């Protein structure tokens, strides 16, 4: 049984067992094999010696006693060696069984660890998918909020444009009102001037009327004035009804 052989798929030793442990086990088996070889050699020598002693067949009693003693000692050593070999074999078998049990236990632990890791990986993948779905939902919410913000910004811009237009219209209206107030003030000044002129003209007319009345009264009592008027009328009749007139007037309002 060669424990030094290593699989290319398992460079650390047999079935994942550490190489140092396999070396120790191999050394134990080598020691057992060496001890077994030594015992086998001792047994072979003892049997050879016994055959030689039987072939000689000594006649003396002392020689017979010595011959009987020697084989008995060799048999004892042989029994001891055999017992030692059986003990070493049993111990090696027990060590091999314990090693197999440890290997099976480690393999079971590794399998359990692998299953646990698989469950952890599956849980992480599920969590990752849930996080991705939640992130996609958040992205959609953010996109909707951005669209609403864009609409609100557009509405605000439209309101600002409307307010700007209204402010411009208000400024134009205020300017027109200011100009109208100024024009009204100017018209009021002109109206006051016209009223003043009318008042003056009225007074002048009243004075003229009074003067004319006085003049008429004076002319009616003046014969020369009557003759002058008659002469003017005759001249007008001679001219064939021709006449001329001129007038001027001014007004503002």
UniProtKB/TrEMBL annotation:
Organism of provenance: Heterosigma akashiwo
Biased composition (Basic and acidic residues): 92-105
UniProt keywords, alphabetically: Coiled coil
Low complexity composition bias: residue spans: 56-78, 210-222
Coiled-coil intervals: 135-176
Designated name of the protein: Uncharacterized protein
Lineage summary: Eukaryota, Sar, Stramenopiles, Ochrophyta, Raphidophyceae
Gly residues: bias regions: 240-253
Keyword Coiled coil: yes
Signal sequence, renumbered to the chain: none
Positions of region (Disordered): 43-78, 92-114, 207-253
Keyword Ubl conjugation (UniProt): no
């Amino acid at each position: 049984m060669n424990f030094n052989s290593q699989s290319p798929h398992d460079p650390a030793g047999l079935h994942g067992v550490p190489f140092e442990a396999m070396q120790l086990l191999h050394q134990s088996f080598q020691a057992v094999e060496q001890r077994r070889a030594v015992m086998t050699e001792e047994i072979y020598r003892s049997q050879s010696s016994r055959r030689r002693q039987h072939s000689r067949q000594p006649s003396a009693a002392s020689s017979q006693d010595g011959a009987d003693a020697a084989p008995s000692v060799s048999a004892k050593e042989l029994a001891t060696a055999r017992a030692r070999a059986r003990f070493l074999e049993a111990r090696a078998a027990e060590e091999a069984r314990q090693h197999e049990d440890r290997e099976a236990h480690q393999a079971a632990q590794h399998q359990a660890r692998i299953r646990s890791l698989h469950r952890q990986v599956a849980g992480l993948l599920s969590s990752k998918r849930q996080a991705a779905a939640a992130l996609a939902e958040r992205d959609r919410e953010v996109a909707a909020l951005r669209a609403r913000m864009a609409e609100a910004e557009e509405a605000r811009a439209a309101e600002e444009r409307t307010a700007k237009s209204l402010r411009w219209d208000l400024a134009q209206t205020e300017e027109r009102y200011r100009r109208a107030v100024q024009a009204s003030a100017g018209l009021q000044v002109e109206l006051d001037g016209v009223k003043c002129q009318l008042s003056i003209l009225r007074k002048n007319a009243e004075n003229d009327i009074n003067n004319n009345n006085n003049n008429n009264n004076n002319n009616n009592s003046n014969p020369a004035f009557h003759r002058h008027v008659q002469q003017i009328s005759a001249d007008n009749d001679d001219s064939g009804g021709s006449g001329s007139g001129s007038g001027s007037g001014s007004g503002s309002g």
